Amino acid sequence: MLMKEYRICMPLSVEEYRIGQLYMISKHSHEQSERGEGVEVVQNEPYQDPEHGQGQFTEKRIYLNNKLPSWARAVVPRIFYVTEKAWNYYPYTITEYTCSFLPKFSIHIETKYEDNKGTNDHIFGGEPREEETEVCVVDIAYDELPERHYKESEDLRYFKSKKTERGLLPEGWMDTQDPIMCSYKLVSVKFEVWGLQTRVEQFVHKVIRDVLLLGHRQAFAWIDEWIDMTMEEVREYERATQEATNEKIGSFPPAISITETPLPINSRNGPSSAPSTPLSTEAPDFLSVPKDRPRKKSAPETLTLPDPGRRDSLFKLPSFFSWNSSPQPE
Length: 330
What we know:
This protein is of the alpha+beta class. The chain contains five helices and eight strands; from the N terminus they run E-H-E-E-H-E-E-E-E-E-H-H-H. It has helices at residues 14-32, 70-73, 197-221, 223-226, 231-248, and strands at residues 2-10, 38-49, 53-63, 81-89, 92-98, 105-114, 134-138, 181-191. Belongs to the PtdIns transfer protein family. PI transfer class IIB subfamily.
């Protein structure tokens, strides 16, 4: 398992970001979805936790098949998706990603929000860990974004909000900005396959960092669209957008109901604190050596990923992981 802590500062208050986050996730998911690909919302309902109190539980399916390179499509099912489950007890959220096709793969994200510049070194407690956790500071204005995600209207070096008059963000803006908040995200990536673990976990963290950068940039770049919304209005926007997104990708589940009436305690299988994702002890078939084939003693039972130097060999995850943990834009 590879664990990293990400700190993403925003020129917002924690209370403002509560609305902006919900708006950004819904709009971003809708923009990134197309026929047969994208984010399907399976459940979105209140949840009562004995430790954290009232929150919101969401379950989503992120369909990826057309996002995979040809070498991956050859071994995965025709319909391939990642399951996202999120428990939002804002300003504390938990998000986990699993894939039934890869039972030894999971992502776990704990998120806390505070009104500061990312200076709290003990926000996730002072418990000693097996090794020092790498802290990655993400600058939403000046960190490099993959070219395919770049939009001039979302370049925060040149963006200025008409309604709040916040921006432009100069170099070193985090030292002088007021208001300012920070999203602290403790991200654990687990891929327990010998010979592939380190390479895959490092790659997934790179993808997650890009996703976090894009989502938080968009939340501020779209501020004039959501800054005047109430919680009731953003929940209605969320409901309408989720139904439109489900229809857009070609899924027609039962109508989504978003209500403020809390469910009974423990009425959903959710964690009272950070969950531990159960993993199967059996590897998927394509990672196993067929029983009817003699094993060569000199050949290790490992897989080799395609050469990352080849453009067509990169495994590209989509940019619509949620940050209501976030990702998504946990």
